[in-house]
Structures are given as C-alpha cells and as structure tokens.
From TrEMBL:
It catalyses: deamido-NAD(+) + L-glutamine + ATP + H2O = L-glutamate + AMP + diphosphate + NAD(+) + H(+). The active site is at E44, K110, C146. HAMAP family: NadE_glutamine_dep (MF_02090). Catalyzes the ATP-dependent amidation of deamido-NAD to form NAD. Uses L-glutamine as a nitrogen source. InterPro entries: C-N_Hydrolase (IPR003010), C-N_Hydrolase_sf (IPR036526), Gln-dep_NAD_synthase (IPR014445), NAD/GMP_synthase (IPR022310), NAD_synthase (IPR003694), Nitrilase/CN_hydratase_CS (IPR000132), Rossmann-like_a/b/a_fold (IPR014729). The lineage of its organism: Bacteria, Pseudomonadati, Pseudomonadota, Gammaproteobacteria, Lysobacterales. Gene3D superfamilies: Carbon-nitrogen hydrolase, HUPs. This is Glutamine-dependent NAD(+) synthetase. ATP binds at G287, L288, S289, G290, G291, I292, D293, S294, T394. Deamido-NAD(+) binds at N370, E399, K515. Its EC number is 6.3.5.1. CDD domains: GAT_Gln-NAD-synth, NAD_synthase.
Amino acid sequence: MSSLRFALAQFDFPVGAVAANAAKVGDLMAQAREGGASLVAFPELTLSGYPPEDLLLRPSFLAACQCELNALAGATNGVAALVGHPHSEGEVYNAASLLRGGRIELTTHKQALPNYGVFDDKRYFRPGSDSAVASIDGVPVGLLICEDIWEAEPAAKAAAAGAELIVVINASPWDDAKQSERERVLKERALETGCAIAYLNMIGGQDEVVYDGGSLLVNGDGTVAARAPNFVDAMLWVDFDRATRTLYADGWPAVEDNSSEATLYAALVRGVRDYIDKNGFSGVLLGLSGGIDSALTLALAVDALGAGRVTAVMMPTRYTSQLSLDGARAQAVQLGVDYHIINIEPMVDAFLGALAPAFAGKAADTTEENLQSRTRGVTLMALSNKHGRLLLATGNKSEMAVGYATLYGDMCGAYAPLKDVYKTAVYRLSRWRNAHAARMGEPEAIPSAVIDRPPSAELRDNQTDQDSLPPYDELDAILARFIEGEESQAEIAAHGFHADTVRRVVRLVLLNEFKRRQAAPGPRVTTRAFGRERRYPITSGWK
C-alpha cells in the first residue's frame, strides 16, 4: 500500500532556545529513523522558535541558527529532515531546509508573508519566489511553509513541478475559529492540485499566542484522513499511498473530548503552563475572591502547574459575603493549594484616614471602592515579591472591554489567563470543568455555589455587576459584534439590541483603551484579542 513513510514532529520549540531546539530536533530525527520514516518534518522556524520578533535583527542570533542547522545536516544519515529556520543571505528569509545524506540538500523560502492579526512577517522577511519539490523514496514531495498553503499559487507551483504530496510546516496560532478554517483551505488546495497534503503545526504557548498542533492529513480528493489532537505533543507517523494519493495515520493519539469547551480549556492551560515554565517562575499567586473568574483561574493554574505551585489569597472586607468566604475556602481546600486569608479592612481604613483631609467635603464614590481593590493589589504584589511567585490577574475579556476593572487594583498581575475569554465563556468553561471532573469520578473543581451566584465585585453593600453593566449575555453579544465582527453601532442595533445600550457599550470600549494598554498579557483564544492583535489608538476622535 505505502509508497512513503514519514513523520510529523508536533512539538514545542521555544523562541530563542536555539541550541535546545536543535538538540530536540536531533533526538527526534533519531526516533524517526528508528521508526522507519524516510522523512521527518519539523514546524515553521523550528530552530529560532516562532515568532522570534526582533531577535531576527541580531546577526549573532541568525548565525547561531545557521550553525545548528549545519550541525544537524551532518546527523541525517538514514533519514531526511525538513527543518524550519531563519535564513540570512543578505536578506532574511523564513526558510525550510531539507537535510539529507549529511548535507543541506535544498533550502526553500516562504512566499506568502502574512501581515495581519498576530503576524508581522513583512517586518522581518523577504518573500521567496518558488515552490520546492524533492524526491523522497521516489515520491515527488512539495515543501511549503504556513501561509503558502493559504494562497493558491504556491501549491499550484508545486503541483506543476510534479508534486503528488505536499508537506506544509506551520506556526499557526489557535483561536476558536481556526480549525474549521484550516480544513476548508486544505480541502480547497487538495481539490485544486490533486495533491495529498500533510499539515504539520507547532504546539505550545509563546507570550500571548498559543499554538495548538492540530496537525491534519488531507487526501488528494479533499477528504480529511486524520486529525491530530490539540495541545498534545506527539510524533505523528504517516504512510502515503502514491497510487491513490491517500494518507494513513499510524497510531495517532486519540482525541478524547473535541468539544469547544475542552479545546479552549486546554489552550488556556497550555498558555499558563508555558508562560510560567519558559520564564522560569517557581509558581503562581492569585487573589481568590469567591467569584467565578478567580475560581476558574485557580482551577486553570492547578491543572497547568499542580497544586504545589499555586497560592491563593482571600482578602475580605466588611462587604465580603459569607458565600464568598465559604466558596473560596472550599475550593482552595478541595484543590489542595496553599491558602491564606488576609483581612485588608485595617489597611483600607488606614488609607482612608490618611486621605481624609484631602477628601474633605467630597461624597464617597467609586474612589473608596477602587481603594479596596488597590489595597488588594498592593497586598498581592508584596506576597508575589516575597515568595517569588508570579501574580495572575483574574479579569475576563468582557470586563477589560468596557473598563470594569481597576488600574493598579484587580488589574495587577503579570499574566491574565482569562484576558481573551468573555464572561459567558467563563461560565461555560466552569461548568465544563466540573462535568469533566464528574466523568473522571472527581469532586467538582469549582463550587457550584460560586458558579450559580450573581456576579459581584463586593466593593459596596448589595452590589452586583448588573448594577453597572447590561446582562452578560447581552453585553457579550454586543462586544463580539463590535470587536470580532467590526460592526458599526447601527449594524449591531439592527440585530435587535437597544440603540442606547449599544451606544453605551461602544463608548465604554473606546474610552477604556488606556486601561487595556496597561493590562497584563494573556493567551489569545479569539479571532480579535486585545493587545498584540487589536491595536486601537488611545487618543482618537472616532466615536
């Protein structure tokens, strides 16, 4: 049946870890050789990691990548390797080299350079002009890089040069719409060219971006032959039948739960784990309020790092309900994390006493509420400094969109796991996490009472979020249309939303850009994330 056996290395290759990445490539080449593969493919910019950003402007960095590539070429006896790397020859290219027989047999350059969303390729690279085709065990294989497969011409060039199979190496970040887009594009390219396509994707978290793997095999007739699991590191073995241009997955890991909630949860866990581990932090710290956002953040942190690397702190005031105290303690005990209760009421009183002369004659307002939040921020940062644990911010995308967050208060933190997660998705994820625990025969990770309660900042008596905001179902629907959909206020209102509500929400989004510029990074999981992707001016007359 098989004309060619090859392997796809769906693994993480961290940015800047050139020597370590090369060592991993060498180990995986040996594994591929032992498994009988004639070719092993590695992701886009394997040696440098993706995206290396301004590291690419350093000649010493480019030279280190080339040195490791040369050394790897000498270790290819018995197996060919397709390795992504930056290639400098006067200009810098996003390249892939075929290593075989102890040498660099060919180097091809990425032709289509994306410059949208999180991508900034045109800042660093020059485009290539041709699609490479190499014979592997007598099979003509086209070699493409990421965006090349999203445009018709590079694949068409490979097919015109005789390719029957296309191997495309990628660093394609995950979002909640990406997998269906990938399958649509790959099906189009397969039907256009008649080539089978093996799509290899990087895996791992890199600052705000999370790569999911999710590698794919698509037959020459456009049918999907196999899907690799998201966020699972794996060597993926493939057999190609040249006669039918059909691909067969050999022993790929099973996808246990492919629901949208399971995949999103896995993305957030991977983002937290890789941010903490790659930056060398011993653990994390967070404020546990008894509300759903901090409860979900705690569950994510424990799933990412283990309970022993997580500290939770409850900081009550007179406005903190018994439900919050009970919920926070129950979750901390259930998950087995280090847990502290620090009463901040005396600190708040001290601040208010010191400020009283300057506040004389002015009525109490949100200033006093924000002072509570900022006292918590100071407390958490002190604990973070003293214990060397990174502080996680617990706010969600809905709050960040409309500015329902306090600068230097609950926005304190170095990483924000829920930054790109709408409040309605926070509820879905929390319920999914508990359902997952039930399937595994485990107690719930997030107390049901915390999920079911009305959301509240608890900064004044009987406060709820809906005192200040529309219901979250309505708010998130408006935000998604305005942010992800780029719809105008009139277009949003035409979907049945009250025009005054739309106007108010949009005004809050535009008004609070200055806050978001000061927010912690967090994993990008939607198609339009604040920060790296959605970059609006702070100062603007556009309303």
